[in-house]
Amino acid sequence: MALCLAAGLSGAQTAPPPQTTAQSAAPPTVRLRGTVQSVTPNMLTVKERSGEVIPLVISDRMVVNEVYPIALADIQPGSYIGTAAMPQPDGSQRAIAVTVFPESARGVGEGFHPFDLQPESTMTNATVADVAAAPKGRTLQLKYKDGQKTIVVPPDAPVVTFKPGDRSLLVPGASVSLSAQAIDGKPTAVRVNAGRNGFVLPY
């Protein structure tokens, strides 16, 4: 399986997570989502959402972030967010989940892009220009350097943020979303987002 992943990594399109930017000189990145099966000082084994069990080398420079839930009301005008969403017939986007970025990550990944969470899903990283009450949830007006989008956030859409974490989050059963690259021919975890105490990441 590791060899298959290495081949996939070498041929995949770069898909950076919301809190990272792609480096043109860096190896292609693959995003994996699932749960930790086991961890040693040098290896992280993840059961991907497809059911495949994937062993990954832990990079010496691997970054770990803790993702945790916040309230929909925490999204305010001026917030910089990333939202996975589905296109709607009226041209708006219906949020699947929203990440409120810490101020240190403002501007990262700005724009509107296809996203790999679900078929036809999108990702918008932008500044909230306005927040309005909707019949159910909130309507956000987002602005980014090349345009703007209207996002409808239903009340059941998860809203999260993140902060620096450490490897103590990587325990069997932990929900993770990670970026992996083929380094020296081996599938290697370079960035991991993880939930604490059973919190399941929305994406």
Number of strands: 12
Q: The CATH topology of the largest domain is what?
A: OB fold (Dihydrolipoamide Acetyltransferase, E2P)
Contiguous low-pLDDT stretches (5 residues minimum) are 6-24
Tally of separate helices: 1
Mean pLDDT: 89
Strand fraction band? over 45%
Based on CA atoms alone, the radius of gyration comes out at 17 Å
Strand count, sense and closure of the main sheet? Answer: 12 strands, mixed
Which geometry do the CA atoms define? Answer: elongated
What structural class is derived from the secondary structure elements?
Answer: mainly beta
Under the CATH scheme, the architecture of the largest domain is Beta Barrel
CATH class of the largest domain: Mainly Beta
Q: What is the string of SSEs from the N terminus onward?
A: HEEEEEEEEEEEE
**First-residue to last-residue Cα separation:** 23 Å
Protein name: DUF5666 domain-containing protein
Concise structural overview:
It is built from 1 helix and 12 strands; from the N terminus they run αββββββββββββ. The protein is mainly beta and 203 residues long. It has 2 domains: 95 residues, Copper binding periplasmic protein CusF (OB fold (Dihydrolipoamide Acetyltransferase, E2P), Beta Barrel); 94 residues, no CATH class.
Task: Summarize the structure in words.
The chain has one helix spanning 2-11; strands spanning 30-39, 43-48, 53-69, 80-87, 93-100, 111-114, 122-133, 138-144, 147-153, 159-164, 175-183, 186-194. It has 203 residues and is mostly beta strands. It has 1 helix and 12 strands. The chain is elongated. A hairpin with a 3-residue loop joins strand 1 (30-39) and strand 2 (43-48). The protein folds into 2 domains: 2-66 and 165-194, OB fold (Dihydrolipoamide Acetyltransferase, E2P) (Beta Barrel); 68-161, no CATH class. It starts with a helix and ends in a 9-residue tail after the last strand. Strands 1, 2, 3, 4, 5, 6, 7, 8, 9, 10, 11 and 12 form a 12-stranded mixed β-sheet that branches. This is DUF5666 domain-containing protein.
